[in-house]
Structure formats: structure tokens, C-alpha cells
Amino acid sequence: MEPKTLVLRILYAQLRTLYALAMKILVTGATGSVGRMVVDHLLAAGADDVRALTANPAKAALPTGVEITVGSVLKPDTLKDALQGVDRMYLPSAPETTHEVARMAAEHGVERIVDLSGPEGSWWYSIVQDVESAGTAWTHLWPGEFMENAEIWASQIRTTGTVRDAFPEAANAMIAMDDVAAIAAEALLGEHHDGQAYLLTGPETLTTREKIQRIGAALDQDIPVIEVSKAESVRLLEPDMGEYAEWYVNGQEENSHSTQPVSPTFEQVMGRPGCTFAQWAHDHVHLFR
Known about the structure:
Layout: H1 3-20, E1 25-27, H2 33-44, E2 50-54, H3 57-60, E3 67-70, E4 88-91, H4 98-107, E5 112-116, H5 125-134, E6 137-143, H6 154-160, E7 163-165, E8 171-172, H7 177-189, E9 196-200, E10 206-207, H8 208-219, E11 225-227, H9 230-241, H10 244-257, H11 265-270, H12 277-283
Helix pairs in contact: 2-7, 4-5, 8-12, 9-10
């Protein structure tokens, strides 16, 4: 790296840290998987005025120094105190109440909302419309499927050493929740993210069969993938996914016909590649033992 480039990056990091010290950031949904990680990434980046909205502070196990407010975005009337003095806010996917929550945020002077939503045609696009109509600055995060969803195969792997799946060649580019949280923190702290919609994927497109192979490598064992009927696949997933099992399998069927490409956005924004599925499987191998 050129010395001049290195100096500029150091200066930018220092300025961003100073700016982070001057703003109050509200992380809603701080008990949720992504929201809880957003808190950690903000603190690691130097933010020292982080307020976390959580319905269950004990479960969230928030770090010392984080201001805790009890409430939920699903209950907008619990946000009045949480929004006082807030400059920027992270908003998880809650399409049922986003319109009211975003409106309240604007009325309380929130300057920017960073939301977890989805592009037009997706289940979560109404979040985009509601946030933009509130009148604040905004940054949309549009992640693909989370790597953490691979835990749906855990019970089969633990009990049978195999995975039965209707569409083993279905392929997409899963992203780790921690990477989504990292870019959310960057969007909250950085000064070049207003009006951006970030389509987020992991760094590689893999089939279900390839993902299972990587889990097997992390376990140091072979995990055969056995193709079964769509109905059987739904039945196998229902104990863990309930009513969403059929919806998930329908999505896998779509992926078997239309492969999701990798989006370069994460690496462009963060300046580093995202977590690979093999690395994620290695780090979470305890889920499958």
C-alpha cells in the first residue's frame, strides 16, 4: 500500500472515531442476532454513546457501557423515551410497524435510519417505502440468506450423519450475520452511505450439496446428501421451522432454477472480503456435533 494511501486511511479512521464519539446511536432489536452484533461492531469502531432497545435485557447480555432501554419496534409506543436525543438508528425487519416507527424517529430528530429490508418484489420492500416516506436520511441493507440458516440441517447431521434435501443443487450466495452487522455499523458511523441500498451476499455461490460438504469438512466427516421429495423435505424441516418449512423449500426450488450471483457490494464498502461458508462452518462447528 502506498504511504500516502495508508496515511489517508489512518486519518479517516481517526476522524470517524472522533465523529462516533459525538453521536448517539440507537440499536433497536438488540436482542436479535444481527442487532446484538451491530452493538459489538459499533463499540469496536469507537462509538461510546450506544443505546440498545431490547425486550429482554438479560437475554441480550449487552456489554458494560451500553445504555439499555426496554421496548420493541413491534410496540411503537415503547419507543418514545428510546428515541430522545438519538442521531442515528438501526432498524431490523419489522414491516408491521416500520411506518409508525420511522415516522416517530423523524419527529424525534433522528438524522439517519439504517434498515434491514429487501429490494422491490421481496417480502421486505414495504420497509424501504415506509423508511423513505418518513423524511429522514436512510441506508437500506438488502442481505441474501444468512449462513446461520444452515442450522436447519443440524438435527439431521447430529442424529443420522446425512442430510435429506429435495433440491441439493439449489444454489445461492449466503452471507454471515456478522458481516451484515459489520456493514450496518459502518453505515451508521460513516459519512458516505446516505441514500444507498446495499445488496449483500457472501463471497461465493454454493449449492446445498457444496455447503453440506463444507460442514462435513469442518466436522472431519463425510455427510452424504440424499435427494428426497419436496413433501419429505418439508416434513423434515417442520420440527425446526414450523409453518415456514414449506416457504423455505419453495425458495430452494426457485434457487434450483435460478442461481443467485455474488454481489461485490460488501467488499467494496468494507474493503475486505466477506466470510466464506467454509470459515463460518469451522467457527460454528459445535452446532453440528
